[in-house]
Amino acid sequence: MLGNTLKSALMISLLALAGNAMADITFSKTTDGSALDIDKSTFDTPAAKEFLATGKNPYVGNEDAIKAGKKKFNLYSCVACHGGKGEGAVGPGLIGSNFRYAKNATNKGMFETIWNGTNGGMGAKGFGLMAPDDGLTPDEVLKVIAFIRSNSNVKMTGNE
């Protein structure tokens, strides 16, 4: 009898752990730390789904994704404030270890900052936060982050 009870308790514990491992990460606004609600259906690529589950950016180090991210970085005029490689210009640098927002050392944190904007004046780039046909999708944001990380002067991937 005790053996079956122990087995049942172990099975319930394992299921609970498995459920937690499958839970999506939660997002918070860089502006005030409050909850950032992003429509989960916009995470519609395998890479975006992996990011949503783990907070790790699978595009870091992927040359094709880096090229696509660079194009978006230029298209959305990120270069105007952050420089051609994210080194900083009018706006803060994004590639070193001294971030204006410490959370940007992680890909999850940088995603939140790009998606919803900052108190320092950067507007939200997340799809659906501007006009429905404007902005970036989660997959595109991850590619932009991969481009930024490829220029890191401290070899920071954000997936540490």
Automatic annotation (TrEMBL):
Source taxon at top rank: Bacteria
Iron in keyword set: yes
This protein's record includes keyword Metal-binding: yes
Signal peptide: 1-23
PROSITE patterns: CYTC
InterPro entries: Cyt_c-like_dom (IPR009056), Cyt_c-like_dom_sf (IPR036909), Cyt_cL (IPR009153)
Residues in Cytochrome c domain copies: 64-152
Keywords: Heme, Iron, Metal-binding, Signal
Protein name from the UniProt record: Cytochrome c
Taxonomic source organism: Methylophilus aquaticus
